[in-house]
């Protein structure tokens, strides 16, 4: 039992260690969007539900009519965390909009408790209010006329792609969704994909199926008869690189959603430059306004 747990931990650490370098040279800012982005609002959102998702995550159902009606797939919100234990938490925390329910005027956010802000957020109760700013950033966009799509999400990165699963269902796009996580009970989005009619491939660290070579082989076999027309990915640099490799092999575009530490989420503080190779004196694109979704393109091989 202990050796199984050690092996699972080793696999998780290997995933994380490989991750940082994987985005080098991969990301480029997307050409101008076809449609204007919605203007963000500052909304005192009501917390309708605050529940557990598996053992690791929490889900907020927020009443925020304008954001629910206007948010585009892959956009995010900044949540101001209320004071906790007499301590103020100054900076809001960025969170993907996991689900949009425009008719009910609600959105869902799923988060993991990782530090000070999310620990305090976990204390919020149904009936409380939360200051939410959004919708923010440039999200995922299906290419005009796309009929099939591969969407890949890992951990809370699944939340960034779920809006596109909603869009695929609404537009009749045939979506295959890879849900990756540490264990089966950790996977986010299984019920959402079932509700939205998307085909799901579940992969986990504990049985090795999420390892990049195994997943790559599985996807090449899955799409042997014909590749998807676009790949959307979020949650790990190594997955973004795998998606870019598949995109290059199949000749299809790849979009990747990134995370960065954010202070404002609005393009003012320049604290969220993307981890991409630029000239040493040149700041990378800002994840909050140029992204979080970027094009992923494999660098040309060195001669
Ligand atoms: C566009 C966007 C969408 C996001 N969507 C979600 C989501 O849907 N669900 C979710 O759980 N999280 C999401 N995040 C990450 C989330 O914002 C951070 O986990 C959160 O801000 C951590 O706050 P904290 O005060 O609890 O942790 P902190 O005390 O600030 O940090 C705790 C640990 O997490 C690391 N960390 C903090 N922020 C980030 C980050 N942005 N990227 C990588 N590491 C970080 C810190 O280095 C530290 O090790 C998103 C981030 C971005 C930029
Ligand atoms: S978070 Fe302030 S510029 Fe991006």
From TrEMBL:
Alphabetical keyword list = 2Fe-2S, Electron transport, FAD, Flavoprotein, Iron, Iron-sulfur, Metal-binding, Transport
Citing just one GO molecular function, the answer is: flavin adenine dinucleotide binding
Among the Pfam families in the record, one is: DHODB_Fe-S_bind
- Where along this sequence does the record place binding of [2Fe-2S] cluster? 264, 269, 272, 288
Domain of life of the organism encoding this protein: Bacteria
> Where on this chain does FAD bind?
117-118
| PROSITE patterns listed in its UniProt record | FAD_FR
In the record, the note on similarity to other proteins reads: Belongs to the PyrK family.
Indicate what this protein is called per its UniProt record. Answer: Dihydroorotate oxidase electron transfer subunit
Organism, by scientific name, is Cryobacterium fucosi
Instruction: Provide the organism lineage as a comma list.
Output: Bacteria, Bacillati, Actinomycetota, Actinomycetes, Micrococcales
């Amino acid at each position: 039992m202990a050796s199984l747990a050690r092996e699972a931990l080793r696999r998780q650490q290997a995933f994380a260690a490989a991750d940082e370098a994987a985005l080098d040279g991969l990301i480029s800012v997307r050409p101008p969007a076809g449609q204007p982005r919605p203007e963000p609002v500052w909304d005192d959102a009501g917390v309708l539900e605050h529940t557990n998702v598996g053992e690791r995550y929490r889900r907020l159902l927020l009443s925020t009519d304008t954001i629910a009606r206007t948010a585009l797939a892959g956009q995010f919100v900044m949540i101001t965390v209320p004071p906790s234990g007499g301590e103020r938490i100054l900076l809001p925390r960025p969170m993907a909009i996991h689900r949009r329910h425009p008719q009910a005027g609600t959105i869902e956010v799923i988060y993991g408790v990782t530090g000070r802000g999310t620990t305090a957020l976990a204390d919020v109760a149904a009936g409380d209010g939360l200051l939410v700013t959004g919708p923010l950033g440039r999200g995922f966009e299906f290419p005009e006329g796309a009929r099939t799509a591969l969407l890949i999400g890992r951990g809370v990165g699944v939340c960034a792609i779920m809006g596109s699963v909603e869009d695929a269902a609404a537009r009749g796009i045939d979506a295959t969704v890879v849900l990756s996580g540490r264990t089966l009970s950790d996977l986010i989005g299984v019920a959402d994909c079932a509700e939205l009619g998307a085909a799901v491939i579940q992969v986990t660290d504990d049985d090795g199926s999420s390892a990049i070579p195994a997943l790559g082989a599985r996807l090449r076999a899955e799409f042997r008869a014909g590749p998807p027309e676009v790949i959307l990915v979020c949650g790990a640099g190594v997955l973004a690189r795998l998606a870019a490799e598949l995109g290059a092999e199949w000749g299809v575009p790849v979009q990747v959603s990134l995370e960065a530490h954010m202070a404002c989420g609005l393009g003012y503080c320049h604290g969220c430059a993307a981890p991409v190779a630029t000239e040493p004196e040149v700041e990378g694109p800002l994840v909050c306004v140029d992204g979080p979704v970027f094009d992923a393109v494999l660098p040309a091989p060195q001669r």
